[in-house]
Specification:
Layout: H1 2-35, E1 38-40, E2 42-58, E3 61-65, E4 70-75, E5 82-83, E6 88-92, H2 99-119, H3 124-152, H4 157-181, H5 192-219, H6 224-253, H7 257-274, E7 278-280, E8 285-290, E9 297-298, E10 303-308, E11 313-320, E12 332-337, E13 340-351, E14 357-359, E15 362-371, E16 383-400, E17 405-407, E18 410-417, E19 420-431, E20 435-441, E21 448-450
Antiparallel strand pairs: 1-21, 2-11, 2-16, 3-10, 4-6, 4-9, 5-8, 6-7, 8-10, 11-15, 12-13, 12-16, 13-15, 14-15, 16-20, 17-18, 18-19, 19-20
Length: 467
């Protein structure tokens, strides 16, 4: 009997222990389930951005300094003025300029005049003179050729007879010209009739001399010296004719590019020296600082103005090598400023460098963003929070970033199934600061995923992107 009671007691205790354990397991599962924070998988739009910060700068900035010594004569601008490229901002007193600048002013006038003359089309007088030079040179060639021919060929009697007749006619013409000129020989040199008959007499004398020379050539005997001289004279005359023709062609063609370049270089050199006495705007800009005033004594390097091109405001931001391949020229940008509350500004990526820079082992790329809707509140030097929109997706499956964990080298989320966490491997696409796109994985819209899985299910836990 005692033995029976003993076994009965053991059985009762075992049953009580089993029931208690089942109740404990059920209560623990319920407590664990209620302790899990969950969020449903959903579908929706996704805007993926890359965030960075940078300072606003002008499109161009120039610090204008004096390049010579002198006394400031005029300052033509104030802070805030807009200027165009080439506008003169300030000048120096003429009396305070160096000798080199004063000489350059004179050189500039003469160099500009020479350039203007070079670029002028040839005058009718210059063309006529060039044509006359060709005619004179051609006549000299013909005469030299005739002289050489007369020495190298035996004269025919008919040529001698003709030459003698020409001498007689030329002598008669000369005598007539002498008689016509005689009444006016004692008249003043500026007398019109005297000048007329004198020109006729001179022409008649030349014709007579040429006729006599030709007759003598026909009657004479050539020697080696005469032939050499005649050949040399012909070659010289031909060279003069070639020069005359080339000069005429050059006159009609105008100056060469080299001639113009030399003349322009002389003007530019003189102008550059003259420009030392003034400061001009190198581009369209806004005057943001004025450091010179009339009467100031300045030296080379003395600051005068600061100019900023505020027509385009830019922000340079550092993007890590991990994200740079997602950044493209033309992407939209959203900018905010701590100094400008309640406003968002739009921008666009205008430059993505092909090469990064390593600083202490960290590689970053300097990406340039341009504001597309700046207003007067945005000023160079302000710090901007920049968000580059790298992708915009519609109706994609989304999971919270803080639910993603690493398990055995792959990304997973934990789905609550029958009260217990179940890991589901997933492949992610684009992401924002809070959610990521699910490209692959056994997830459906509405699935409850755990945001805080227990440690034993999360030995390799952590945010999905190393944050």
């Amino acid at each position: 009997m005692k033995k029976f009671l003993g076994w009965t007691l053991v059985i009762v205790l075992l049953v009580a222990a089993f029931v208690g354990y089942r109740q404990y397991r059920a209560r623990a599962a319920t407590e664990a389930q209620t302790a899990f924070q969950t969020e449903s998988v959903r579908r929706g739009p996704l805007t993926a951005t890359i965030g960075a910060t940078g300072s606003v700068r002008a499109n161009q900035t120039a610090i204008m300094t004096w390049q010579t010594s002198g006394t400031v004569a005029e300052v033509n601008v104030e802070v805030g003025d807009t200027v165009r490229k080439g506008d003169v901002l300030a000048t120096l007193e003429q009396t305070s300029l160096s000798q080199a600048i004063i000489m350059a002013q004179a050189d500039l006038v003469s160099a500009q005049k020479a350039l203007d003359e070079l670029l002028k089309p040839p005058s009718e007088l210059a063309i006529a003179q060039a044509q006359q030079a060709i005619a004179n040179a051609q006549k000299a060639v013909d005469q030299a050729q005739q002289r050489l021919d007369s020495l190298t060929s035996r004269a025919r009697q008919v040529d001698i007879d003709s030459a003698q007749a020409t001498v007689v006619m030329a002598r008669d013409k000369l005598k007539k010209a002498q008689e016509d000129f005689a009444p006016y020989a004692n008249k003043p040199e500026d007398n019109v009739q005297r000048a007329y008959f004198q020109s006729i007499l001179a022409q008649a004398q030349r014709e007579y001399d040429n006729a006599v020379a030709r007759l003598n050539n026909l009657l004479g005997t050539a020697n080696e010296t005469d032939l050499a001289v005649a050949q040399a004279n012909l070659e010289a005359a031909q060279a003069q004719l070639a020069d005359a023709r080339q000069n005429y062609e050059d006159l009609l063609a105008g100056p060469t590019e080299d001639d113009i370049a030399v003349a322009e270089a002389r003007v530019a050199a003189a102008q550059a020296t003259v420009n030392l006495a003034r400061i001009a705007a190198p581009f369209d800009a806004t005057v943001t600082a004025v450091e010179s005033k009339p009467g100031d004594q300045v030296n080379p390097g003395t600051m005068a103005f600061r100019l900023d091109d505020l027509s385009h405001l830019l922000v340079d931001v550092q993007i890590s090598e991990v994200d740079i391949n997602r950044v493209k020229v033309g992407q939209d940008v959203v900018l905010t400023f701590d100094a400008i509350l309640g406003k968002e500004y739009q921008g666009t990526v205008v430059e993505v460098p092909p090469v990064g820079q390593a600083v202490q082992g960290v590689v970053n790329f300097t990406v340039t963003v341009e504001l597309t809707n700046p207003d007067e509140d945005v000023k160079p030097g302000m710090t901007a929070a920049v968000n580059i929109v790298v992708s915009q997706l519609e109706d994609v499956l989304l999971v919270p970033n803080r639910a993603v964990r690493f398990l055995n080298g792959e990304r997973v989320v934990y789905v609550l199934e029958n009260g217990q966490p179940k890991p589901v491997p997933i492949t992610l696409g684009a992401s924002s600061e809070t959610v990521s796109q699910v490209l692959e994985g056994d997830l459906q819209e509405g699935d409850a995923i755990i945001l805080n899985p227990p440690a034993q299910f999360n030995q390799q836990g952590g945010p999905p992107f190393g944050r």
